[in-house]
Amino acid sequence: MDAVLKTTPFSLLAERWKPSAETVRRAAFAALVMSVVIVVTGGAVRLTASGLGCTTWPRCTDESLTPTPEMGLHGIIEFANRMLTYVLSAAVGWAILAARCHRPWRHGLSKLGWAQFWLVMSNAVLGGITVLTGLNPYTVALHLIAAMALVWVALLMWERSKEGDGPARLLVAEPIKRLAYVLVGVIGLLVAAGTLVTGAGHHPGTPKDNKFVPRIPIDYDRLAQVHADLAFVSLGLAVAVLFVFAAVKAPPAARARARELLVVLLLQGVLGFVQYFTDVPELLVGIHMLGATLTWIAALRIPLALRVRGDGAAPAGTLPASATTEDAPQAPQTPQAAAV
Questions:
Q1: Pair 36, 153 in one domain
Q2: How many CA atoms lie within 13 A of 302 on its CB side?
Q3: Residues 191 and 147 in one domain
Q4: Which of 52, 151, 190, 219 has the fewest C-beta atoms under 10 angstroms from its C-beta?
C-alpha cells in the first residue's frame, strides 16, 4: 500500500508537508485513543440492548442507510457506533500520512499504520457479520478480540514513534524478556475468557424479551469462575514479575509499567467481583470493559520497556552482556522484525 503513497496526490503532499516527530507521535496516539474508544462504544451498544438497532449491514435497514424514526434510540446508538468507525479510520489515516511524510520516512511506522487500516476494515466486516447472524456470541467474541488486536498494533505504533528505527537492543537477559511475554500471554487469555463470559452472560445485546439471540451453551457461573481463576493467575504473575524486575535491576520504565499493571489488575479484580455479586449492572460492565482494554495496554507496554532502539546501529562495545546475538548491530533485521 505504501506504493500508492508514492503517486500523485500523495507524493505532492509528502513534498509539501513535513510533519515533525512530535506530530507523528500525536497522530499515532490519536489512533490509539480511538481504538480504545471503539471498544468502549461497541460495549455500550451491547449494554444498551442496541446490537440489532440497525437490522442489517452495511445499510441500517433494507430500505434506508440511516436509522428511521421507528427504530428509536436503539437504532441511533447502533448507527452512531458505526459512524465512529469513520472517525477511527480518519485517525489511522492521519497516522499513516504523518509517518509517510516525515523526513526521514518512517517505513516501519507506515507498515504499522497500514496494519491498523486493514484491522479496522476487517473488523467492520466482522461487525456486519455479527449483525447478519443475529448477534451470534462467537462472532461477538471475535469482534472484540479483533478490536483488541487493533489496540495492540496502535499501541506498538505509538511506542515505536517515540523511538528510532535502528535494531532493537535488549536491556535484560533473555529469560526476563520471555517472562514478560508469558505475562502478556496470560493477560491475553484473561481478556479472551472475558469475551466468553459475555457470550454466556446477562447482556446479549438485545432487549431481554428477545428469546432468539443465541448464547454460549456453557454454564455462566463456571465461565465466570474460569475468568476469575485467570485473574488470580495474572495477579500472581504480575507480582512475580515486579519482584524479578527489582531483583535484576530491570530498567526503571519496565518496573514502573509492571507497577501500573498490578494496580490496574487489582482495580479490575475488585470491579469484577462487585459486578458479579450485583447481577452485572450495565454501567459496571462498561467500566469493566474499559478496564480490560487498559489492562491489555498495560501488559503490552512491559516487554517494550525491556529494549531500546536508536536511529541506527549501536556503536561497538555498547551491548550489555545479556544481549543476544540477534540484538547485535552486525546482525541486520528485516523490516518485519524491526516492527516488534
A1: yes
A2: 31
A3: no
A4: 219
Distance CA 238, CA 262 (A): 6
All three cell numbers of 333: 533485521
* Span 218-276, pLDDT tens digits: 888 898 899 999 999 999 999 999 999 999 999 999 999 999 999 999 999 999 889 88
Burial class of residue 140, CB neighbours in 10 A (0-12, 13-18, 19+) = buried
Same domain, 181 and 324: yes
**Could you tell me if 179 and 315 lie in one domain?**
yes
Same domain, 127 and 13: yes
pTM of the model: 0.84
Q: H or E segment at 46?
A: helix 21-47
Distance (Å, whole) CA 57 – CA 145: 20
- In whole angstroms, how far apart are CA 28 and each of 2, 70, 153, 196, 332? 17, 40, 10, 31, 26
In this structure, the number of other CB atoms found within 10 A of the CB of residue 53 comes to 25
Partners of 307 in the β-ladder: 170
Residues 77 and 41: their CA atoms lie apart, in Å, by 9
Which of 148, 165, 182 is the C-terminal boundary of a domain?
Answer: 165
Same domain, 174 and 319: yes
pLDDT tens by residue, 100-149: 888 888 888 999 999 999 999 999 999 999 888 888 889 999 999 999 99
E strand or H helix that includes residue 269:
helix 252-277
Q: How many domains does the chain have?
A: 2
Residue 201 backbone zone (phi > 0: left; psi -120 to 50: alpha; other: beta): beta
Cell matching residue 112? 504499522
Return the axis-axis angle of helices 174-200 and 137-161, rounded to nearest 10°: 150
Residues 56 and 118 in one domain: yes
Question: Which residues are paired to 224 by β-bridges?
Answer: none
55 is in which domain, residue-wise?
1-165
Secondary structure of residue 165 in the 3-state scheme: coil
